[in-house]
Structure formats: C-alpha cells, structure tokens
Amino acid sequence: MSLLIMVLLLLVSLLISNVISHYIPYVPTALIQIVFGVMLALVFKDVSFGLDSEWFLLLFIAPLLYNDGRHFPREELWKMRAPIFGNAIFLVLFTTIGGGLFIHWLIEAIPLAEAFALAAILSPTDPVAVNGIAKRIRIPEKILSVVRGESLINDASGLVAFNYAVTAAVTGYFSLEKAVFDFSYIFIVGALSGLVTSLLITWIRYSLRKQGIGDVTFYSLVQILTPFIIYIATEELLGASGVIAVVVAGLLHAIASERTETIAAEEKVLTENIWSIVLFILNGIVFLLLGLNIPSSMSATVENPTIGNWRAIGYVLAIGIIILSIRFIWSYLFTFYQYHFRKATEADKPSLKSSLSSSLTGVRGTVTMAGVLSLPLYLESGAIFPERSLILFLAAGVILFTLVMATVFLPLLSEEEAGTDEEESVKDASLVRAQQKVLLAAIQKIKQETNEENQMVAFALMDEYKAMFKKMQPEKSALETKDYQKRITEIRLLGLKAERKYIQEAMQRKEIDQETFEILETSYDHREEILSLDMGSSVKHIIGSTIREWKRFKRRIKGNKEAAQKRMLIGREIQEKAILAAMEELEKQASKQKRAPIIRLVLLDYQKMLSRIRLNTRRYDETIEEKKDNLRIKVMDTERFEIHRMYEAGEISNEQARELRRFINYIENVTLYEYGE
Length: 677
Fold this sequence. Notes:
- The chain is mainly alpha-helical and 677 residues long.
- The protein folds into 2 domains: 3-417, Na+/H+ antiporter like fold; 423-676, no CATH class.
- Helices cover 81% and strands 0% of the residues.
- The model is unreliable at 416-426, 475-480, 534-547, 618-622 and 672-677 (pLDDT under 50).
C-alpha cells in the first residue's frame, strides 16, 4: 500500500474513531483509536507503518511537548516542582531498577540489561489518554497537574535510561560514572539549547517585523516549525535531549508572548487554529499507529510454541501490576514525606485512595512503543538480540493493561469520592472556576490591546468583565456577603438618585436638549437594572450595553455631525456635574450615618468615573463603537482559546466547554447582528 493511501486511511480512521467516541463517551478516544489501529492491521494485511524512534520523536513527540510547554501554567509547574521532578527523574530511576530486577526474576530468559531496558522504556507516562478520561470524569486537579508536568520531562529521562540499558545489552559494557555524566550533559545542555534557540528564533521574528515583514501566515509557519528546528539542532548538533529542549522552548515562548511580544490578533488566531488541527491529527494518529503495530509486535510471541499464550498474558499482567505498584508506593511515600517531614503547606494528607488514583494515571503509551520498536536485531557480537519478540509483546501488553486499568478503575474511584449531590456541587464549582479563568484571560487580552486611541472603549469593556468576575467571587459568609451587598447597593442607588435629580433639574433649566436627556436617563435605567439583578444578568449587561450604545450611535450619525459632537460634549459636561452632585450628597450621608466605610467605597468608584469622563472630554470619535466591537471580537477569540486550552487539558468537560462557548457565541451574534443593521 502506497504511503499516500496509508496516510489518507489513517486520517479517515481518525475521523471515524472520534465519531464513535462521541457515542461511547465512557471509553477514552485513545483506546478506541488503538482498537481501530489493530483492526486496520488485521483487515489490511499489506498495511505497514514502521515506528522508527528517531523520526517518531521528531514528528510527534517534539510538537506535542512543545505545545504542552506553551500552555502549561508556569505557576503550577513551579508550585508542584517537587512531585513533578520527583516523578520525572527519581520515579523513572526506581521503575527502571525495581522493574528490571522483577522482570529478570520473573523471566530468566530475559538478561538483566534487557530487563532494565524494558523497565526503562515502560517508565514514561502518556498524559494524552489520561486527558481523554479526565474530560469525562473528575480526577483531582493536583494529580492531573503532576501527570502533565512529569510527562514534559520523563520522556527524556526514560529514553536516556532506555538507551543506556540497550547499549549495555548490545556491547556488554556499562560505566556508572560515564552514565551519570552523560545523563547530566543531555539534560543541562538540552535545556540550554532550548533556551538559546528559542531566544534566537524570537529575536529573528522581531528583526523581521522591524524590517516591515508583517505577513501573519509567515510568522504562523515559523511558530509551527519552531519545535522541529529546535529538536533537530539539539539532537544532531549537540547530542543533547531534543525533548527537554522543546519543552523549555515552549515555556519560554509563552513567557515571551505574555511579557514582551505583541502578537497581531490575526496571527494569533491563525496560529492557534493551525495548532488545533495539527494537535488533533498528531494526538489521534499516534494511537492509531500504536494499534497498527501491536499485532506485528505480538505475532512472534503468539506463534512461539515454547511460550504459551496464557503464560505470556500472565507475564504482562504481572509486569503491569508491578509497574503500577512502584508508582503507587512512590506516590504514597512522597506524599507522606511532604506532609509529615517537609510540612509543605500545599501537601495533601497521605491517602491510599489518592495514591491509587495517582498510580492509575500513569498510563503508558506511544513513547514506550516507539522506543521498544527501536531495539536492534543483533548484538555487537553478531548474536541475535535475546528475546526481542517477547520484549515487544510485553511492552505492547503493558500499554494496553495500564490504559484499560485507568479506563475501568479511575471512574470508580471518582464516583466513590463524590455522591450525587456533591458531584453536582463540584461540577458547578468547576464551571465557575472555568468561567473565572475565561474572564481573566479576556481582561488580560484587553490590557494588552489597550492604547491611546482605544483607551476609553478598553476601560469600558474591561469594567464589564471585571463586574462579571466580581459577581463570581466565592462567598466568605452567606449572611455577611448578602448583607454587605444589600447595603452597598442601597448606597449606589442613593447616588444614582442624586444624579437623576440633577439632570432633571438641568432639563428644566433648558441646559440640555430632550435627546441628550433621554440618553442619560436610559443610561441611569441601565445602571439601576444592573444593581438590582444577580450574576446571571451579566449576559444582559453586555448584550444590553451593546444594543443600546449602538442604537444611540446610529441616532447621532443620522443628524448633523457637528451637532452630534456638540450634544456629546454637553452631555459629558452635564454627566460630570451630576456625578459631582451625587458625590456631594453621599458626603453628607457619610457624616450622618454609621455606614461611612461603605459610602467611602462608593465615593471611590465615583472618583474613578469622574476621572474617566474628564479624560475623555476630547473631540467625539465617530468610530468608537466600531473600535469597541473590534476589541470585543479579539477578546472573544482569546476566550475561545482559553476554553479550548482547558478542554484539551482536561480541566473542563465537553458539556462545560459547550456551555461556555454558547455564552460567548450568543454575545457575538448579538453584537454582529446589531452592527450589521
């Protein structure tokens, strides 16, 4: 079968497996794709797609880990650094030694060096499958963070240990001193290479922008090619770990984008859309390839008359259990040490259930399969590599065993941790946290896009999002919070009443015309509506604001432009005087009442409003609504990126992601509809 037909067959299988996953939500997509790959190998006998470890790491692992580094929270990585690096380095070492000794004891036909090689390549975890499970059930967030964090590093540590074990098996020579030195070199130089190469690529992008090259497609392609360039440069030129290099580069890229680089909105949209497609394809195809190679890797052992099939399956179960048991023991002892001896404030109390959940999330996957398939056929002496087919069978079997164990038992542990009512409460709390993350991402985007030209609309839009975020803050005390909100609302309504009174008197004195009076009255009606509604009405707040302001803008541009500008200036002047009247009234109330602290807080808000009005008393900008709509669309794109990131990371379920997108789409549809009118 030609390579082109093979690639098309894999892509079609990828689409079909995702459709099936939609109708069987309790089975991880990764497991469905593995089964699909096995079926392809059995149905199409001429299908072959060898997994050479070098190109597999370059084509799949490098971009996947680079993207994980781009989106992994740096604060979370630093906060969880002890368990992450412990799992990524020491647990890999213990798994290699403990697992290797057990394999050699269990199967004497496998020499000790080959047993260490098998245990080493079984040590890296694969978070993609765990993320698929996490989208459907509640896995503790700390456990997920540790699994994702260690997966950024343990691929490199596991592969290094595997390569040394294979070298020892092939040559019959092993030097601990040289192994430690090379291990340190590979990690340190790999990290430095990722740092320097990423900075160099960032500098080149800056330089090209200064030269006037602003093609967003060009820069999007540069970002997609970055992990491949860094991996090849590190592996081929320096002989260090390209895996560590791309992880460091991904982390650095995220920091540079947030703090120093102003990326055009079009470039960000295009780049993220391309990454979404690339990641969808890579994440799916790696499991299809895994399934595709399982029959061939197991066939020699199944056909071997000296090893019974049931005995081989027993070997798989025993090795899988011991690998997960090592992880379970390590997890419990490390948590025990953190809690009792280090007295870490973030450490949880040691729990068998938590340690069991942590061990089950240690699913093995594509890196294990790619590594074990790279085993040489012959030793340096010319002899056949001992028990190579059996090692392939054991590796493939342990991968399936860990994936099935996680699929079956993680949901059971999750159900035990939360009852029906509690689960609903947890889901609600999780959705609120997700909404807060989306709003924070939106606020951060507005800050990045704020400049002198759009300062007024940026402040207005930021206030909308800040108001929604404040409404979502958890209650410290239900009675205290409700009472406090009630009192502060009363003060705000008191100030609003004073503002109304002033403009009504101004209307009677003929200081403003009827249209300006109606616009100000409508804005007061809107503010009063917001004060009297709960968090759910924040949707109305944004939509109502968009509709009302756009209609007012349309009314203004129908008439004479100079007259509209004059009315706008008069309206702002009257609004400023109304605010001063409200502040004067509240100052009087503060001297009479015991609620002075709350009144002072409301006065502070009025001072901010006054400063903003005075700042924007310059000539009226006719494109203000267009600027606000453009900024809102950019913010919505950022919100969608955040939702996609949380969903891919398993932080929210598919249902929660749809709910968040529905909210954003509704606002966007109303905005575009009104703008189109």
